[in-house]
C-alpha cells in the first residue's frame, strides 16, 4: 500500500447545491497524489488503471477521491464533476491550488457544460417524472437545478454558483426565461426539502411543471446549434501542467 497526500477535500452533491434533506448523505470528494518517486519508477507499485480512483462508502458518509493526474486531465476536458469540485462552497481540506484552478476554469467549455446540464435534466425528467407526472421533491429539484445551470451559462457565459438559490436569484433579477414567475415557488420547495426527508413527495404547481416541460422542449429544439450559437473556450493545458509540477515538487 502506497501512502497518499490529500491535496484538497470538498462536499459534492445535494449539500453543496443547497438542496439537502435532514437525512442526506455527506458526499465528500477529494484529490490526492502519491509520492513523486512513485510516478518516476519504471516498475511503480501504482497501477494507473486502478489506483487513480479511491472510494469508501458508509451509511451516511460517501468518500470518493481522484488522483491528481486523472483530476487535471478531466479539468482540461471541462468535466462537469471536476469543475463542480473546484467550485464547491463547502471545503473540508483547503489548499491555495483551488484559487488557481478557479481562475483557470474560467475558460471552461460552455458547450460541454450546457450539454451536460441539459442532458441531466432531460434524463432525470424522463426517468423519474414524465411517465406518471410525479416524482419526488428531490427529482424535481434536480431537474430544475440542471435547467437553471444551463440557462445561466448561456446567458452569462460563466460557471454558475453551485447553490441553487444563488443561480435562481441571479436569473430572477435579470428576468431571464420567465424564471421570475416561479422563483418564489422554487424557493419554497427548497425550504420543504431542507426540512424533510430524502424521498419526500411534494405538490408541484402547474406553473413549475409547465416551465420545466417548456424549457426542456426549447433546449431540444436548439441542441444542434448550441456550439455555434454560444461558442466555446479552452482551458489552458500549460497552466494545468504548471500546477501539476508545483504539486509534485511540493511548492503547493
Write the layout of secondary structure elements.
Elements: E1 5-12, H1 14-17, E2 26-33, H2 36-40, E3 53-57, E4 61-67, H3 68-76, H4 80-87, E5 91-93, H5 97-104, H6 110-129, H7 137-156, H8 164-173, H9 183-194, H10 206-222, H11 226-230, H12 237-248
Parallel strand pairs: 2-4
Antiparallel strand pairs: 1-2, 1-5, 3-4
Label this structure with key terms.
single chain; about 250 residues; alpha+beta; Beta Polymerase, domain 2; about 50% helix
Can you give a write-up of this model?
- The chain has 252 residues and is an alpha+beta fold.
- The chain folds into 2 domains: 118 residues, Beta Polymerase, domain 2, CATH 3.30.460; 121 residues.
- The protein contains 12 helices and 5 strands.
- Helix 6 packs antiparallel against helix 7 and helix 7 packs across helix 8.
- The mean pLDDT is 90.
Q: How would you sum up the major sheet?
A: 5 strands, mixed
Rg measurement, Å:
20 Å
Structural class: alpha+beta
Tally of contiguous helical segments: 12
Q: Oligomer, anyone?
A: single chain
Order of helices and strands: EHEHEEHHEHHHHHHHH
Short description:
This protein has 252 residues and is an alpha+beta fold.
Amino acid at each position: 500500500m502506497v501512502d497518499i497526500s490529500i491535496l484538497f477535500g470538498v462536499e459534492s452533491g445535494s449539500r453543496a447545491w443547497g438542496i439537502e434533506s435532514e437525512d442526506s448523505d455527506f458526499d465528500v470528494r477529494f484529490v490526492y497524489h502519491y509520492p513523486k518517486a512513485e510516478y518516476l519508477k519504471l516498475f511503480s507499485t501504482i497501477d494507473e488503471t486502478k489506483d487513480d480512483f479511491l472510494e469508501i462508502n458508509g451509511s451516511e458518509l460517501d468518500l470518493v477521491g481522484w488522483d491528481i493526474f486523472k483530476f487535471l486531465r478531466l479539468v482540461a476536458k471541462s468535466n462537469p464533476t471536476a469543475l463542480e469540485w473546484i467550485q464547491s462552497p463547502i471545503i473540508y481540506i483547503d489548499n491555495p491550488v483551488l484559487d488557481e484552478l478557479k481562475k483557470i476554469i474560467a475558460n471552461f467549455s460552455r458547450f460541454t457544460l450546457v450539454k451536460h446540464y441539459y442532458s441531466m435534466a432531460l434524463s432525470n425528467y424522463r426517468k423519474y417524472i414524465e411517465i406518471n407526472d410525479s416524482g419526488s421533491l428531490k427529482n424535481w429539484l434536480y431537474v430544475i437545478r440542471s435547467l437553471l445551470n444551463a440557462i445561466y451559462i448561456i446567458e452569462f457565459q460563466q460557471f454558475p454558483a453551485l447553490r441553487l438559490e444563488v443561480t435562481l436569484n441571479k436569473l430572477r433579477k435579470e428576468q431571464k426565461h420567465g424564471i421570475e414567475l416561479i422563483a418564489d415557488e422554487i424557493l419554497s420547495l427548497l425550504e420543504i426539502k431542507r426540512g424533510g426527508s430524502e424521498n419526500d413527495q411534494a405538490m408541484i404547481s402547474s406553473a413549475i411543471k409547465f416551465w420545466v416541460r417548456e424549457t426542456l422542449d426549447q433546449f431540444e429544439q436548439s441542441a444542434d446549434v448550441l456550439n455555434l450559437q454560444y461558442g466555446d473556450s479552452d482551458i489552458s493545458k500549460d497552466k494545468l501542467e504548471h500546477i501539476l509540477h508545483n504539486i509534485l515538487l511540493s511548492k503547493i
